[in-house]
Amino acid sequence: MGNVTLDDKTFRPYIPYSRIDEAIAKVAGKLNEDYRDCGEVPVLLCVLNGAMVFFTDLITRLDFNMEVVSVKLTSYVGTQSAGTVRKSMDFTGNVKGRKVLVVEDIVDTGNTIAEISRLLKEAGAKETRICTMLFKPAVFKGSVPPDYVGLSIPNDFVVGFGLDYNELGRNLKDIYVVDSQ
Ligand code: IMP
């Protein structure tokens, strides 16, 4: 794994896929335990675009029936959270009266998951839980931390495995960290 250049920044190797794979296996094991006998078909909500790679890898390891719905929100410009979260695409399916598991790529300030939880409540979801591949606890400002976390990381800007810098780097199989801020 060498460095990669995306736009004006260089990123160095940070988390190899082998560690991501182990983390996803653990999360999938917990989700299987918690949802297998929950008595209904939950909705798994893919938060586009960042979560799509994690989402695909995760759901193929789940052994309970589920429905898939997507939503798109944006809060980041460059490497800084813009603070305000914009909904740029509506839920692609009905969540009314459903148990919803939100699948996120990364929880940073927590603004995005707070907004998604609010939107889900507004749309009539009866239960919302959050599953995220990466969590930055040092910058989290929310009141409720994610229910399922793959890996906790320091406050570093990362790309790869779905995460982007100015829309680039989502296709990288491993996770990289910014080298020059
Ligand atoms: P939050 O709303 O501050 O929790 O940020 C969540 C969103 O910001 C994520 O869904 C990502 O799209 C983006 N984000 C946060 N941290 C990073 C990062 O290190 N790399 C790339 N995107 C990030």
What key attributes describe this structure?
6-stranded mixed sheet; single chain; alpha/beta; globular; 4-stranded antiparallel sheet; Rossmann fold; 10 strands; 3 helices; 181 residues; binds inosinic acid
- Summarize the main sheet: 6 strands, mixed
Distance between the termini: 21 Å
**Order of helical and strand elements:** EEHEHEEEHEEEE
Radius of gyration: 16 Å
How many domain modules?
1
The low-confidence runs, each spanning 5 or more residues with pLDDT under 50, are none
Shape: globular
The portion of residues assigned to helices is 10-25%
> Which structural category do the helix and sheet elements fall into?
alpha/beta
The multimeric state of the shown protein is single chain
What is the percentage of strand-forming residues?
35-45%
CATH architecture: 3-Layer(aba) Sandwich
CATH class: Alpha Beta
Task: Give the strand order of the largest sheet, numbering strands 1, 2, ... along the chain.
Answer: 5-4-3-6-7-8
Question: How does this structure look, described?
Answer:
The chain contains three helices and ten strands; from the N terminus they run E-E-H-E-H-E-E-E-H-E-E-E-E. The strands form two sheets. The protein has a six-stranded mixed β-sheet with strand order 5-4-3-6-7-8. The protein has a four-stranded antiparallel β-sheet with strand order 1-2-10-9. The model has no long low-confidence stretch (mean pLDDT 93). The chain has a single domain, classed as Rossmann fold (3-Layer(aba) Sandwich), CATH 3.40.50. The chain has 181 residues and is α/β, with parallel strands linked by helices. The longest helix is centred in the N-terminal third of the chain and has 19 residues. The site of inosinic acid (IMP) has 17 residues, from strand 4, strand 6, helix 3 and strand 9.
